[in-house]
Design a protein that fits this description.
single chain; about 650 residues; alpha+beta; Glutamine Phosphoribosylpyrophosphate, subunit 1, domain 1; Rossmann fold; six-stranded antiparallel beta sheet; about 40% helix; about 15% strand
Length: about 650
């Protein structure tokens, strides 16, 4: 893994090492194992490496082609090296992945990323064509940001590295801010008005003369999968097992000790059970390190009972981490500095805690089970399919199976049927009527901004903005098939892998996600709905595939714990006054955030704390809205106040007196 970046000056201005000092220093936080700077007139490329794979030990980037015409800075781990070497007529002699990417570009040009499997972000300077070509992996695991003006194009793995370049402005992007405050996840923009994110599965190319804006091209489309059709359940299970095994095998390739998260759920246990038999003892030590978060104070968040049979099977170096005191505010200033912009992921402090434990254990590669829910899906949209086609008996059977074990089964069955089967089929005029009712309840706030903390005047000003409307449209789509559910879920989750990557890099780790293997994603996208949900068993294809591999108690587990219960308890009992102080001290937010809405949410959390109530979804939603406001406030505070006149104004939220000293 590496921190990469660079700049191309369109006006011929020479790239000077002095101008790149702060830029390179920030990138070095992603790559402590050495790096370099390549300069040629108006072009500069930088790379700072974190060695993880055996091939990376020989990497000294940026890498130059033998004829000197091509130079690459790459943050990459390729999972199809053997296949690429055969296609390129090369012998796999342990050359770094960046050398293979450069050879692929020399052979296939801008079509090269289509042939690459793995996690990557790279930039190639083509001196013959006087062109810069960049690409990012299909699932968006490796970060890539860029800034373009009439004078230059600059790019980096880190937002704050870009801001360290002379001439890159620091201005708030209000469109992204409005999207954030209403729960959106834009894959292309950032919170900085002039800095963009290269979307997953896209390439970027620009001429050295800058006659035209950078050209973007999508090379892989999540929304256009091929059907997966096999003759039997056994065939589906075998294919899934082979693909997941291949993905895990590719991701345990390491020159250092390997670890994996273990929660006791279906996904992390699948990864651990496969990985411990695939390690190369010559390079990794042969024993898989596992890291589990424990919650003594809140049993509803604790999964040690489901971890126990996996640990008892042996072959693991098991580490436990007590996380009772972690709240959404834990280490927030540090996490915001790493992210470079506000984010909404209340569980991120838990990942940061796990990354630190892995670093302390000497691990450099950490696997996890994230995104299994998004890729395989629970198949709830199968209920909508059955309702749409009038298959009422099958619908009743699935709902009955899904609600098995619920304390209020009848009530739960009706709720589930409405939520998953009938609500997605609600006609357009019904949704419009509901939005009209929302407008009647809060006439100053546009319907799309209902149940958010966005300031009404700001919402009115943003209404009609094309980019925001496109984001709102994506969020309001009604899906009628499990395939659409899958596409939506994965697309929504594509912001998180990049964020996880940046956190892990700060701890000297490479975080790897077996469920984000492109081959596995393509297979799952095309699955028929009955392979996702059958007889009330969600994710049935995975349960069948892991027979004989997973402990049976995990394979047929219906329940799912959540750390949000523990984090809510810790916030309410320990950090609620601090939450009020942060929001109370936040100036300059009135132009974007509604103080009255913020106060209502804060008061709701205070009542929940007084009643020791940690489980209600309405409280979680209030917590999420406050979390966004706190992120925004602290992010503004971290910006250079001398050049940022936005940080002014009065307090937004008052702390109830009964919480003093709590």
């Amino acid at each position: 893994m590496s921190g990469i970046g660079g700049v191309v000056y369109f006006d011929g201005h020479p790239a000077e090492p002095a101008d790149l000092a702060g830029f390179s220093a920030r990138l070095s936080q992603r790559g402590p194992d050495g790096g370099g700077l390549w300069l040629a007139g108006p072009v500069a490329l930088a790379q700072h490496a974190l060695w993880t794979t055996p091939e990376s030990l020989a990497e000294r980037g940026p890498f130059t082609s033998p004829d000197g015409a091509l130079v690459i800075a790459a943050d990459a781990r390729l999972d199809n090296r053997a296949e690429l070497c055969r296609a390129l007529d090369l012998r796999d002699a342990g050359q770094p992945d960046s050398a293979l990417i450069l050879a692929a570009y020399a052979r296939w040009g801008e079509a090269a990323p289509e042939r690459l499997l793995g996690d990557f972000a790279f930039a190639v300077w083509d001196a013959r064509e006087q062109r810069l070509f960049c690409a990012r992996d299909a699932m968006g695991v490796r970060p890539f940001f860029y800034y373009q003006s009439a004078r230059c194009l600059a790019w980096a793995s880190d937002l704050k590295a870009l801001l360290a370049l002379p001439g890159v402005p620091c201005r708030v992007n209000e469109l992204r801010l409005a999207d954030f405050l209403t729960g959106g996840h834009d894959l292309a923009s950032t919170f900085y008005a002039d800095i963009m994110r290269l979307p997953p599965a896209h390439t970027l190319s620009v001429s050295a003369h800058g006659e035209q804006p950078a050209r973007l091209r999508r090379y892989w489309d999540l929304a256009a999968p091929r059907d997966t059709r096999l003759p039997s359940d056994a065939a589906y299970a075998e294919a899934f097992r082979e693909l997941l095994t291949a993905s895990v095998r590719a991701r345990v390739r390491s020159a250092f000790p390997v670890g994996s998260m273990l929660s006791g759920g279906l996904d992390s246990t699948s990864v651990v059970c496969l990985a411990r038999g695939l390690l190369d003892s010559r390079t990794t030590g042969g024993r898989l390190h596992t890291f589990s978060l424990l919650f003594d104070a809140v049993p509803a968040s604790d999964e040690r009972g489901y971890m126990a049979p996996t640990v008892a099977a042996g072959g693991l170096e098991h580490h436990t981490i007590l996380a009772d005191e972690v709240t959404p505010l834990s280490d927030l200033e540090t996490l915001l500095d790493i992210a470079g912009e506000p984010y909404h992921h209340m569980g991120l402090p838990l990942q940061w805690l796990a990354d630190a434990a892995a670093q302390q254990a000497g691990v450099r590669v950490l696997l996890d089970g994230n995104y299994g829910d998004a890729v395989v899906t629970h198949g709830n949209m199968r209920l909508a399919e059955l309702a749409h086609h009038g298959q009422w008996r099958a619908l009743a059977r699935e709902v009955a199976g899904l609600t098995t074990g619920w304390r209020r089964r009848t009530r739960g069955a009706f709720y589930l049927a409405w939520l998953a089967a009938f609500k997605p089929l609600l006609p357009k005029f019904g949704r419009q009527a509901w939005r009209g009712l929302r407008r009647w309840r809060d006439p100053q706030r546009p319907a799309w901004a209902f149940q958010s903390i966005i300031a009404p005047a700001f919402a009115q000003r943003m209404t009609g903005q094309d980019a925001l409307q496109a984001s709102l449209h994506r969020r309001e789509q009604r899906y009628r098939t499990t395939r659409a559910e899958n596409q939506f879920s994965v697309g929504k989750m594509q912001v998180q892998p990049e964020l996880y990557n940046r956190l892990a890099a700060r701890c000297g780790l490479e975080l790897r996600h077996p469920f984000l293997d492109r081959r596995l994603v393509e297979f799952c996208l095309g699955l028929p709905s009955e392979q996702r949900l059958r007889d009330g068993w969600a994710r049935i294809v995975q349960r069948n595939a892991m027979a004989g591999i997973l402990p049976e108690a995990v394979r047929w587990r219906r329940s799912k714990s959540s750390p949000i219960y523990s984090m809510g308890r810790a916030l309410f009992t320990r950090d609620l006054p601090r939450l009020g102080e942060i929001v109370h001290a936040a100036g300059g937010l009135e132009r974007w955030v509604d103080p009255a809405a913020l106060q209502r949410d804060y008061d709701r959390l205070c009542r929940a704390a007084a009643e020791a109530r940690y489980h209600q979804p309405a409280d979680w939603r209030a917590m999420a809205r406050l979390d966004r406001a706190v992120h925004l406030a602290l992010w503004l505070d971290q910006l250079d106040q001398a050049s940022n006149p936005l940080i002014t104004g009065r307090a937004l939220c008052s702390s109830p007196s009964h919480l003093t000293g709590m």
